[in-house]
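Regression check, zinc ion case 88:
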Amino acid sequence: MAVNYLQPVTMANPLVGPEPTTLICPSCKASVTTRVDHKATTRTHLVALILCVLLCWPCVCVPYCVNSCLNADHYCPSCNAYLGTYKR
Ligand SMILES: [Zn+2]
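Current build output:
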């Protein structure tokens, strides 16, 4: 298990998905269900811009409220370590 010792803990975890995931936290070694923060991506801003041009400005907030347009950042609920990002 020491093979990945030199890799930073902040490396994206390919196992995480769009929803909270149960995994072993590499930081505190506990079995946790991740806390997910949804972040806007470049695509989110593009969709917002397109909606703004084609429709009207109140639509701009729509893609920021739709989780399917957002990346999912996973954090450990126990030690708050960053565990990985699910990219759209
Ligand atoms: Zn942890």
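Comparison notes: The chain has one domain: 22-86. Residues 5-10 have pLDDT under 50 and may be disordered. No diff flagged against the previous build.
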